[in-house]
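Q: Structure tokens for this one, please.
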Amino acid sequence: MDKSSWWQLLYLGILATVSLIGVAGCDGTGVDERFGGDDGNLSLWITDAPVQDVDSVIVTITGVVIEPVEGDPIEITFDTPEEVDLIDVIDDPDRREELLDDYPLPVGSYTSLRLVLDETRLYVDTNGRQEVLTIPEEEKAGLELEFNVDVEDDTELDLTIDFDVRKSLRRIDATTFELHPSLRIVRTERTGTLVGVVDEDLIVNNPRCNDRFDFREGNAVYVFSGAGTNPQDIQGNAGDPLATGIVELDSGVWEFVVGFLPQGNYTAVFTCDAELDDPEIDDDLDMFFSTRIDVEIDPEQVTEIEFEQAAAL
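A: Here is the predicted structure, written as tokens:
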């Protein structure tokens, strides 16, 4: 089987798993009294791209609040709080973890969704130690996401929240981290997946990558909205990558996956310096970026690209 066929089968497997898997304890029962009328169904998932700087980032999600255009907010409290390791969630068979399964959502128009976290159960594991993780008060607004949508009778609404740790995590000192939530929400069926490989020469034989640092660390692909976009490091502004994916060695091949990209045009670049990327400062002068590759993402499709040594800036 060629690599293209393998990726297509993987994606079909992901879609099949999405339709079959349910997570116990997150069905939204035990919530505020429902009001009458027809309902659609809401399934809600969370995903993330892994990072190499820490071993795990644990967030405990206790529920969600959904804001309608008219009427009171719908507060959904999970029967069992959902403890999610944002580093490992990408290793699940469907590359995301379910928070709600076919929750009855009344017919109407909705404007936003907010994650509710148990802030006493947030922490980071790094180098075998469990460190403090807090959310600054002024950053909590990042847990609320716009998702303007109209729900009709029998609407099957499947939403995926991308909780981007690379953009969100800040190290304050040796034992303290802050979470500055950087989330995006998508209609899952309207997204596709970007996969690919990075030429070994671009990592191992590139003096910008194989220098005094370990060439196995810091390898990532940054994906920016729009074709022909000039890449930048993560700075916490509108020019940041929409999504990122770690590049890992698997059976002698350096591979990456960036999932849940809405249909559209994008610019992808490879960097071997992701571990240098401080989200609060401009690191452009210190970071290596490959030549840009323009890609088009189609719904429920896998798009493949390859970064080559000859394409390096």
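A few notes: The chain has two domains: 3-181, 191-311. The domain at 191-311 is CATH 2.60.40.10 (Immunoglobulin-like).
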